[in-house]
Amino acid sequence: MHPKLNILIVNYNGKHLLENLFASMEQQDFGKSRYALQIWVVDNGSSDGSQAYLRSLNHIRCIEAGSNLGFAKANNLALSQMKGTYCLMLNSDTLFTDKSNLDDWLDWMDKQTEVGISSPKLIRRDGTLDPACHRGEPDPWTAFCYFSGLARLFPNWKTVAGYHQTYKNLDATHLIDACSGAALLLRLDAIEEVGLLDERFFMYAEDLDWCKRFRDSGYSVAYYPSVEIIHLKYQSGLENQAAQRNTNHWFYTTMLQYYDKHYANQYPGIVRWVLHTWVHHKLRQPSKMR
């Protein structure tokens, strides 16, 4: 019998994060779920003892990639083998709480057959919302309003606050354009139509791209705040400053990749030149967490 839910985690030198995540699962009695669950971990060539730790857990299905394949390709290794109804993609730097009722979430998804992807309410350790779980489509105007600061100045103004759609009720279930791969529940049979994650995105934007492709295929993307998951943010894979610099690099260069894939043919070349210039300006600045 195939599991109702697969939980998929990509790990890169995050043994301590995995330990905390699995402990939070045990604390919430995942074993008492009404549905069959299967946990998958794809290890991206960790060197911190993660592989030996994962081999010691007989309830985890582990795939050892052998090297750092990036987020999209590592997830695809498991997704291409997966059976069942749903997959919950998770970052290793997430934690479950007493508000993380997965059974209720699955029941809701069963009734919303038009929803291909849904996001929980991702919260930071201090209880504030991680706005990455509640996003609009980052077209050039929306991205400009966000990075210029206009969206922060006018968070309730739909015209400029589209990046995180802060004009919507964040305590109510509703449709959004995109969410974060840090915690993303998807309908597995939809992959036959939509396809796997785009592996040209090594890190970042693969979730935005996937959400757009789901929407383009006729599925909805939904925000479901009845379920909350903690996102520690900026922890997974960041074991040193060099890793943080690499993360900074991928964050900005994937903006160009996303623009080239979805918008380059819709706008004059000057828009791409401005974006390219801005990205390289950001990459020359000292690395810092966004």
Largest sheet: 9 strands, mixed
State mean pLDDT (0 to 100 scale).
92
Secondary structure: number of strands: 9
Give the structural class.
Answer: alpha/beta
Alpha-carbon Rg, integer: 19 Å
Regions with little confidence, pLDDT below 50 for 5+ residues: none
N- and C-termini, Cα separation: 43 Å
Specify the CATH homologous superfamily of the largest domain: Spore Coat Polysaccharide Biosynthesis Protein SpsA, Chain A
Alpha plus pi helix count: 10
Shape type: globular
CATH topology of the largest domain: Spore Coat Polysaccharide Biosynthesis Protein SpsA, Chain A
Features:
alpha/beta; 290 residues; 2 domains; Spore Coat Polysaccharide Biosynthesis Protein SpsA, Chain A; single chain; 36% helix; globular
Description:
It is a single chain. The protein has helices at 15-27, 50-55, 71-79, 102-111, 140-148, 150-153, 191-194, 206-216, 241-262, 269-284, and strands at residues 5-11, 37-43, 60-64, 86-91, 94-96, 115-123, 174-176, 183-187, 220-231. The chain has 2 domains: 5-134 and 170-236, Spore Coat Polysaccharide Biosynthesis Protein SpsA, Chain A (Alpha-Beta Complex); 240-290. 36% of the residues lie in helices and 20% in strands. It has 290 residues and is α/β, with parallel strands linked by helices. Strands 1, 2, 3, 4, 5, 6, 7, 8 and 9 form a 9-stranded mixed beta sheet that branches.
